[in-house]
Amino acid sequence: MSHLGPGKASTSVNGKDQILPAIGGPGGGGGSSSSSGGALRYPSNGKTIYHRPLNRSKTSELSQASFAYLFSEMVSYAQRRVTGIQELEKRLNLQGHPIGLKLLDLLLIREPPRSQTRPLNIITLLHFIKINLWMHLFGRQADRLEKSSDAATPDEYMIIDNEPLVNAYISVPKEMSQLNCAAFVAGIIEGVCDGAVFPARVTAHSVGGKEEGEMWPGKTVFLVKFQPEVLEREALIGKG
Amino acid sequence: MSYYFAIIGTQDNPLFEYEFGTSKQGGDGQPRFTEQARHLNQFILHSSLDIVEEVQWTNGQLYLKVLDKFFNNYISCFMTGSGAKFLLLHQPTAGPGSGGSAAAASGLGGASSSISASASASSSSSSSRNSTSIGANPTSPQTEEAIKNFFAEVYENYTKAIMSPFYKVNMEIRSPVFRQRVAAAGRKYL
């Protein structure tokens, strides 16, 4: 990306004919606005995204039925043109990733100013995910947080949800028993981790339903595997 | 007193920039950077990114206060949760109006001695008033509070900007409404 000249009209980064939201408009930077692309269009009620408050957590609950409907469409959309379950999960993961990136800032700004801090180590980040992110998405905390007990994989952490909301109305056929559609949620978690500069791979695994009469047949483990540089930095910060 | 504000993305890429002047003490809100200083500002601002990267892991606060100083240029930083940096370059003025920036530019090789001479002539009359202003002392609690409020307001609008489903990480922010909001925050606090 070229550097923006001082006060000049901003150079287009992504090409001129990209579809912009009504608020985006052509870049009118520093006085001289670009002439291409037509006039800026505002929504009919005159309210752009900037006129809306960020703190509307009270009335922000959505209908689970409509979510389930949309989510089933997302899964079948992802299912098109894929050859295997892994690829399908990858696509679901990619759908969730940008949501995580955006939620990180939204959730931070909704915190009371006193506790508005960036997560600096793995534990605070995972607590942020377990508590804040889960509360925002599902209205409750995640059920458990675990560190891998295997000494060979100190970079693996597990977030456990006994009953993922996204899987409530999903029945996986026998031949696809490896599939867990909570890969979408794994993508959101991965987005949060990446956004907070803790690059990680997050995958969703079903662990319930192995035994008869089990309490949580839909139990899902989100396996968070951090990149080696995260652990390296963690060790350095811990020393300092 | 002039300000240069920039938002830097996670790949050290500029997302947004804006120049403005103080609106306090009868300022007209216009930046008084010389043409040369404006180019230099970008260098000074970006060179502080190294320090930001060090400090960001020792201090979990979003607002990192004044991080860097280059002659008379002070850099304040605010780091968002998702790794974007808000950087504000401010030049405290010894005298009113353009005196400070012109003097700084001449110190860096600019030839604007006539301007700085006239400014310094008038500075003696109002220097006592300026010593309590936001601009006069960049590390005073009042200044830090004012900049903090400015950053907080920009952060709110930045969060709204990235909430747009069409916005991807590290995309340039081109919304004129966002620019207006930043300008309004600058007028209100600085």
Automatic annotation (TrEMBL), chain A:
UniProt KW keywords: Endoplasmic reticulum, ER-Golgi transport, Golgi apparatus, Transport
Location of this chain's protein in the cell: Endoplasmic reticulum; Golgi apparatus, cis-Golgi network
The UniProt record lists the keyword Transport: yes
GO cellular component, one term: TRAPPII protein complex
Predominant location category: endoplasmic reticulum
CDD domains cross-referenced by the UniProt entry: TRAPPC5_Trs31
UniProt GO BP: endoplasmic reticulum to Golgi vesicle-mediated transport
Region (Disordered): 1-38
Pfam families tied to this protein: TRAPP
PANTHER family attached to this UniProt entry: 41-2 PROTEIN ANTIGEN-RELATED, TRAFFICKING PROTEIN PARTICLE COMPLEX SUBUNIT 5
General function of this protein: Plays a key role in the late stages of endoplasmic reticulum to Golgi traffic.
Family membership noted in the UniProt record: Belongs to the TRAPP small subunits family. BET3 subfamily.
Quaternary context: Part of the multisubunit TRAPP (transport protein particle) complex.
Name this protein carries in UniProt: Trafficking protein particle complex subunit
From TrEMBL, chain B:
InterPro entries assigned to the protein according to its UniProt record, in alphabetical order: Longin-like_dom_sf, Sedlin
Coiled coil start-end: none
Region (Disordered): 119-141
Pfam families from the UniProt entry: Sedlin_N (PF04628)
Cellular component terms per the entry's GO annotation: cytoplasm
SUPFAM superfamilies in the cross-refs: SNARE-like
Stored CDD domains: TRAPPC2_sedlin (cd14825)
GO biological process: endoplasmic reticulum to Golgi vesicle-mediated transport
Positions with biased composition (Low complexity): 119-136
Descriptive protein name: Transport protein particle 20 kDa subunit
Species per Swiss-Prot/TrEMBL record: Cladorrhinum samala
Organism lineage: Eukaryota, Fungi, Dikarya, Ascomycota, Pezizomycotina
